[in-house]
Amino acid sequence: MQVILKLMEKIPFFWEMTEKERIVFVESNSFFQVFKDGDLIIKENDHSDFSLYVIIKGTVCVVKEDYPGKMITSLSDGAVLGEASFLVGRPRTASVIAKGPVTVFKIDQAAVKKFDYPLQIKIKDRLAEILVERLEKMNQAFAHMLG
After folding, report:
1. Is the pLDDT of residue 91 over 80?
2. How many helices (DSSP H) and strands (DSSP E) are in the chain?
3. Among candidates 132, 82, 122, 133, which has minimal Cα distance to 105?
4. Cβ distance 51 to 111 under 8 Å?
5. Are 104 and 32 within 8 A, CB to CB?
6. What is the rounded (10 degree) CA torsion for 75, 43, 64, 90?
7. What is the pLDDT of residue 21?
8. Which of 66, 67, 87, 136 has its C-alpha lying 20 to 30 A from 113's C-alpha?
9. Cα(56)–Cα(101) distance, integer angstroms
């Protein structure tokens, strides 16, 4: 367990959490998953999985069916995936594909609902920050495209 806790200390998503809160994660139904190059981690429009993923090691490509052959963005170590679906229970808005070997920490909604309320709020606050950061980047990219 100590190895996992040390690893979590290096990941921004977990920085605001105490060691006790990190232990709650380790002891929950959350778990590590390993993907090979080209594996589908999240499928666009999926209605069955609303888990949150934190990239421990590796890089992923984010793609949308409306833009075949185009990568929306790539994300790597420490990035969070699936936050919108996790927060509001909507279908996935994009697909995420492993670009080489990828290890993620999968956080299940049911497990988080069992956490104490302050930890749930801390998680939601961090996810809101991530969403706002992504929205700001999209707005900047859009403004750049417009000239």
Report:
1. yes
2. 5, 8
3. 82
4. no
5. yes
6. -100
7. 92
8. 136
9. 11
pLDDT digits (tens, 9 = 90+) for 5-57: 888 888 999 999 999 999 988 888 778 899 999 999 999 999 998 999 999 99
Which positions ≥6 away from 125 have C-beta within 8 Å? none
CB 13, CB 80: distance < 8 Å: yes
Contact 54, 42 (CB under 8 A): no
Residue 134 has pLDDT above 90, yes or no: no
Task: Examine the pLDDT at 1 and tell me if it is beyond 80.
Answer: no
CATH 1.10.10.10 for the 2-146 domain, yes or no: no
Q: What interhelical angle do 2-9 and 19-27 show, nearest 10?
A: 120
Residue 45 gets the label, from left (phi > 0), alpha (psi -120 to 50) or beta, of left
Tokens 């709020």 identify what position?
A: 121
Burial (CB < 10 A; 0-12, 13-18, 19+), residue 1, is exposed
Average pLDDT over residues 99-103: 96
- Taking the complete model, does pTM exceed 0.70, yes or no? yes
